[in-house]
């Protein structure tokens, strides 16, 4: 069945090949580049950042080669409000957010999808490495490029209007196909950093917006063992950059208290977490359940998958890990996977707090 498809074209190789594949599948495709930066830089530096003038031009050239109409949508205001400001406010609350996940939720599959449906499109096509199987989100065949984690926040009704043509391909295969299609972006480097911080200096970006107020670094007993220039510069599990005095062993960030502007540090074993509570659960691969279900969970974009039991309680997602995890930060997503190969997204939520069976303290 031929569909009217809006292909989101970032200017990279993945979205270009995805758009070309949608055309090849017989769909009526229109390309759109999302202008997300208020003041886009003219050129990227290596593989850093995106949303540049160069990216817009690359997307337009790809659309010309593919032979589809192309438009640029200015979504800088929405992006600043829903992604950048959310990122800053989350750090101000002592959390470690994932802006790519929030962009997928609020921009690509909310603002863009709403506008696309209003204009008569049936689906939004992107170059994400993930699959849709019977309406459920499934990992890519390329585990190194899988992006199901950052898409897991999408609701079933949003997935029903999504199209991911690259989920059955490896990244090498994508680049080879781009070359065969004479797409100039075939060897363009991937962007690996937060797109609105192209120089990679997250601490500097946050300092400009939140200030740099000096505060104490405490050990588990509350003794001052150092100072810092802003609690927002740290994340749970961090070891480098602590500048501690008289520390006989390695210490890691255990918790962040933005109101008191304190950072608490301790040994690695104090990071062990066995229970996680996540807010705003989204059940996309199964029905919500109040009974514990055996599954697997991923706790960060590049984190290991761990066995667990999970259920919903009072509007929150409760996750009990079979084995302790370390470096679990509030603000990150907890994504549940199930199915025969544990590759189907069942649900997701934003980590709010954690605890250890042997500890009464709750962090987050």
TrEMBL record:
Residues 145-147 are annotated as: Interaction with tRNA. It is found in: Cytoplasm. It is an enzyme of class 2 (transferase). The keyword tRNA-binding applies. The active site is at residues 103, 195. Keywords: ATP-binding, Cytoplasm, Disulfide bond, Nucleotide-binding, RNA-binding, Transferase, tRNA processing, tRNA-binding. InterPro entries: MnmA-like, MnmA-like_C, MnmA-like_central, MnmA-like_central_sf, Rossmann-like_a/b/a_fold. ATP binds at residues 8-15, 34, 127. Residues 205-266 form the tRNA-specific 2-thiouridylase MnmA-like central domain. Residues 274-351 form the tRNA-specific 2-thiouridylase MnmA-like C-terminal domain. Its EC number is 2.8.1.13. Pfam families: tRNA_Me_trans (PF03054), tRNA_Me_trans_C (PF20258), tRNA_Me_trans_M (PF20259). Belongs to the MnmA/TRMU family. Catalyzes the 2-thiolation of uridine at the wobble position (U34) of tRNA, leading to the formation of s(2)U34. This is tRNA-specific 2-thiouridylase MnmA. It comes from Lipingzhangella rawalii. The gene is mnmA.
């Amino acid at each position: 069945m031929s569909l009217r498809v809006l292909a989101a074209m970032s200017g990279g190789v993945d979205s270009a090949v995805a758009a070309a594949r949608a055309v090849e599948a017989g769909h009526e495709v229109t390309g759109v580049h999302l202008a997300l930066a208020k003041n886009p830089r003219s050129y990227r530096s290596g593989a850093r950042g995106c949303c540049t003038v160069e990216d817009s031009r690359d997307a337009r050239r790809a659309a010309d080669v593919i032979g589809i109409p192309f438009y640029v949508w200015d979504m800088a205001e929405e992006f600043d409000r829903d992604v950048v400001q959310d990122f800053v406010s989350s750090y101000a609350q002592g959390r470690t957010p994932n802006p790519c996940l929030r962009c997928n939720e609020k921009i690509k599959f909310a603002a863009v999808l709403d506008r696309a449906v209003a204009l008569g499109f049936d689906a939004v096509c992107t170059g994400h490495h993930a699959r849709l199987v019977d309406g459920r989100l499934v990992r890519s065949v390329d585990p190194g490029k899988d992006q199901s984690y950052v898409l897991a926040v999408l609701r079933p009704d949003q997935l029903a209007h999504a199209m991911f043509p690259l989920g059955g391909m490896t990244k090498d295969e994508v680049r080879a196909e781009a070359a065969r299609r004479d797409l100039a972006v075939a060897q363009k480097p991937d962007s690996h950093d937060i797109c609105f911080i192209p120089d990679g200096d997250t601490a500097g970006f946050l300092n400009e917006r939140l200030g740099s107020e000096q505060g104490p670094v405490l050990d588990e007993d509350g003794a001052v063992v150092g100072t810092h220039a802003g609690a927002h510069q740290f994340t749970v599990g961090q070891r480098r950059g602590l500048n501690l005095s008289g520390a006989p062993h390695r210490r890691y960030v255990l918790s962040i208290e933005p109101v008191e502007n304190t950072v608490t540090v301790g040994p690695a074993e104090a990071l062990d977490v066995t229970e996680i509570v996540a807010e705003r659960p989204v059940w996309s691969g199964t029905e919500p359940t109040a009974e514990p279900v055996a599954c697997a969970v991923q706790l960060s974009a590049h984190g290991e998958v761990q066995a667990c039991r999970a259920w919903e309680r009072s509007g929150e997602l409760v996750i009990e890990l079979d084995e302790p995890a370390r470096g679990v930060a509030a603000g990150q997503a907890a994504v549940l996977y199930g199915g025969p190969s544990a590759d189907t997204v069942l649900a997701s939520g934003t980590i709010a707090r954690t605890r250890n069976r042997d500890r009464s303290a709750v962090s987050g």
